[in-house]
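User: Hi! I'm working on a homework problem where we have to compare a predicted structure to a textbook description. Could you give me the structure for the chain below?
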Amino acid sequence: MPADGSLPPAALAAVGRQGFGVYVHVPFCASRCGYCDFNTYTAQELGGGVRRETYADSVLAELDLAARVLGDSPPARVDTVFVGGGTPTLLPADDLARILERIDATWGLAPDVEVTTEANPESVTPESLKTLRAAGYTRISLGMQSAAPGVLAVLDRRHTAGRATAAVAEARDAGFDHVNLDLIYGTPGESADDFAASLAAVVAAGVDHVSAYALIVEDGTRLAARMGRGELPYPSDDVAADRYLAAETALGAAGFSWYEVSNWATSAAARCRHNLLYWTGGDWWGLGPGAHSHVGGVRWWNVKHPSAYAARLAAGASPGQGRELLSGADRHTEDVMLRLRLATGLPLAVLDDPGRAAARRAHADGLLDGAAYTAGRAVLTLRGRLLADAVVRDLLP
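Assistant: Happy to help. Predicted structure tokens:
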């Protein structure tokens, strides 16, 4: 990784050809959830040298570096901005507003820009939400995970069962155009009734987007340690499949349609355009420790610890730790992996001969939609969504 973060001319020539977004990583959390292995830190874990109060300045320093790197080849516009974490709303709302303002001043926000922040339900107030909305944030994604107190306790979530839906009402009152709730299913101890109640609460909250993910037990997490000691059972694939089917049924009945295997929206406008940028091969610059970026077929990632990140920027150097130039084969593999998860699927023509043969078998097995297949596209059926990873493996060489 060059010390100045410079990019090859071929990458610069392609900036924003398929859209351009900015991701901002905020690595702070009030406490660590037992299932989480993201690049996040509590105050106790950070140690000295890093303060929330000065974090925005480090992000803006990297934004200045990004402007120098893209130089005479800036994107035509910024289509999407996504602030994730961690818990971004642990930063003062004014800092989040300042970061967005500088992104606009640096590259220019598209007139219809989508600007999202993630938030934990307990980390926002009516006042902070109004500040964010006034600053130009259009979308908020709240980490609900479950409406069952026992499930929240297993996941080490701090908010109460009703706080997430209350935060939805506050976001709507603040004027947010789009509100998402995140669910996790398959947690040990979660019953079918627990998950049904969570889905009912989501629908009643009046959101226009829902993300639902099966619990994944990551090595090194507190949850993995508890399971390793036999305190909790490991998640069941069969239970996860049942929960997914329950989500599809309940959300479909409430007017939601899937557009990605784990995401449902009430309209095209409610879909997360930033994630669609990732899934369809667009470019983005990731600001913050551990953030990943992709520009013109070059992918790179920043150093993970906030102290190292801030120190590199203070020294005038790129915080990038490593990078790779994606080959044509790499890009093809990622394109198939990501596009097949979308409701729009992918053209059969992009597959090689073995891949098209695998698609024929998947169609015969009821994993690909018949009408779409006849029209020349590979689109997962409901059963195919349950086996999406296996279908992808078969389609790739």
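For your comparison, note the following. The CA atoms of residues 28 and 357 lie 47 Å apart. The chain is about 40% helix and 20% strand. Good luck with the assignment!
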